[in-house]
Amino acid sequence: MTRTIAQQAELALLLEVGTTPKPGNVDRHRDHNELHFEHFLAGAVGASAGLEALADPDGPPIGVAFERAVEGMSDQSGGNTQFGGLLLLAPLVRAAALGELTPDRARRIAEGTGVEDTVGFYRAFEHVDVAVADPPEDMDTLDVRRGSGAVPAVRQRNLSLYDIMERSADHDGIAREWTGNFERTFDAAEAIKTRDGPVTDRAAAIFLDMLAADPDTFVAINHGEEVAENVRERAAAARDGRVDPGTLAEELITEGINPGTTADLLAGGLFVALLRGVDV
Amino acid sequence: MTRTIAQQAELALLLEVGTTPKPGNVDRHRDHNELHFEHFLAGAVGASAGLEALADPDGPPIGVAFERAVEGMSDQSGGNTQFGGLLLLAPLVRAAALGELTPDRARRIAEGTGVEDTVGFYRAFEHVDVAVADPPEDMDTLDVRRGSGAVPAVRQRNLSLYDIMERSADHDGIAREWTGNFERTFDAAEAIKTRDGPVTDRAAAIFLDMLAADPDTFVAINHGEEVAENVRERAAAARDGRVDPGTLAEELITEGINPGTTADLLAGGLFVALLRGVDV
Questions:
Q1: Which of A31, B61, B67, B131 would bridge with B116, disulfide CB 3.0–4.6 Å?
Q2: Mean pLDDT of B231-249
Q3: Domain span at residue B131?
């Protein structure tokens, strides 16, 4: 194995977008109108300096390194490609840099974040438009869409990035990983490791399992919870062989439905699987 | 632009394999039996440390950095993915690190190589099986398939990597670039720059133009010159609209014909185009 931890993370992002079919997402065989496969290639390469900062045990706070990764990711014309994937990878990469990558070590990294991580997180929204949920009314000053404008309020309240993730965990699948021992991520990694065949074929099967198991929160934010539940049911039909996954992929692309959080979870799972010895 | 020179080179490798249709090559929509798309993703990521060494003006001799890139590229189970592409990129990346990337500057880098570059080049063959032509009878001790075993003969004759490329230019399209002002590479870059649309669509058109213009030397080495000329004619038919390029792609994959040198030239052209401001 000659790949560094940062390179494994970058490769995980590339394998994620290379995995097909991945119903609703940009994948090896499908683009959205404005968001193309090649934007994800550039996004992954652009993120690499930030990933290296995350993989440095003495590197900057993970929120600051995350902002660097998002800035580099954004150097392409498609828009948001891997914001959620990088947010999930951030604590995982830093944990891997400090020892064996376990849920416990990743949890300690997440819980150990401070206000500087939060500042980096908010600044990351300056680089790219990210679809997010409306904040609760009393949280308006902390709306991530304010970007750097929210930094004074963040500092005043001395909120850690873990605090922010706790406030988002009810409606955001990545925040739920941060505050829930990265359970789905590590489960995905083990499932990838257990299966046979090319890693991207394994990943396609796991993607469908995940989409069939839980409504995608990115779909819920963009289209409502009913649509997210409908997508989950259709993914279950594809998983169970009642619908061709390729057909579902075409349908969701046509409907403009992009289960991006499930793709982000897959990227995290691929990263853990690569570190645990899955070959490409 | 936040991407470094090394990152542009890595992205060029990724955009090359993401370009489709690229008749006969692994591309976004097609695999060969043993050589898959995901192997190229891992190859590009793995090459990045070597590309960084190439992009360092004070870095090691380019042949030594090339060996590092090939070693990293080889950390996947598909075999040779981008050996030729990296051999073409090596002088281009170093030239770009020293100033504006022009044919003249690239030529001076190529001509300025010494015996240590050649040693690195030969050692690179230790990391991966590369299809090459038989050497002339009096060159048997310099057969690249000897890998490090040829190093004593290389040192004794004090051959530069440019010398080696001169001896291969009649049958190898990459060596022809090294010794011919990188003419096809820079032509490809300008053609990519001139066209409109997504960069991978532009690249697909240029690939067909190149394959229609000159017989692919990798096809000639593996299948003979007649087959290479036949592929060139079929590519011309596809370029002229007499055959669907996707159909030709399917045919060549079925026939096991892989015009790898033309793909390598495209990777070089994409690198130059990215440096000259083509957006992704």
A1: B61
A2: 97
A3: 5-275
Residue A215 · residue A228 · CB < 8 Å: yes
Answer for the pair B148, B124: CB distance below 8 angstroms, yes or no: no
Pick the residue of B16, B36, B41, B81 with the most A CBs within 10 A to test the interface with A by mutation: B41
Q: Residue B211 to residues A37, B43, B248, B254, B259: CA-CA distances in angstroms?
A: 24, 23, 12, 18, 8
Distance in angstroms (rounded) separating the CA atoms of residues A262 and B29? 23
pLDDT in tens, B87-112: 999 999 999 999 999 999 999 999 99
Nearest CB to B10; choose among A4, A37, A45? A45
- Residue of chain B nearest A13, judged by CA positions: B41
| B36 has a chain A CB within 8 A of its CB | yes
Report the complex ipTM: 0.95
Number of domains in chain A: 1
**Domain at B17, CATH number:** 1.10.4200.10
Burial class (CB in 10 A: 0-12, 13-18, 19+), B11: buried
- Say if B20 is an interface residue toward chain A (CB within 8 Å): no
Does this model's pTM top 0.95?
Answer: yes
B280 within some domain: no
Within-domain flag for A59: yes
Neighbours of A147 (CB within 10 A): 14
Considering the domain boundaries, does residue B230 fall inside one?
yes
- Is A280 part of a structural domain of the chain? no
> Does A55 reach chain B within 8 Å, measured CB to CB?
no
Q: According to the model, what pLDDT value does residue A133 have? A: 83
> Are the CB atoms for A129 and A77 separated by under 8 Å?
no
Q: How many CB atoms lie within 10 A of CB B279?
A: 12
Which residue among A1, A3, A41 places its CB closest to the CB of B18? A41
% of residues, chain B, pLDDT over 90: 93
Q: Would you call A14 and B71 a contact, using CB atoms and an 8 Å cutoff? A: no
Tens digits of per-residue pLDDT, B205-239?
A: 999 999 999 999 999 999 999 999 999 999 999 99
Q: Which of B44, B75, B199 sits opposite A2 (nearest CB)?
A: B75
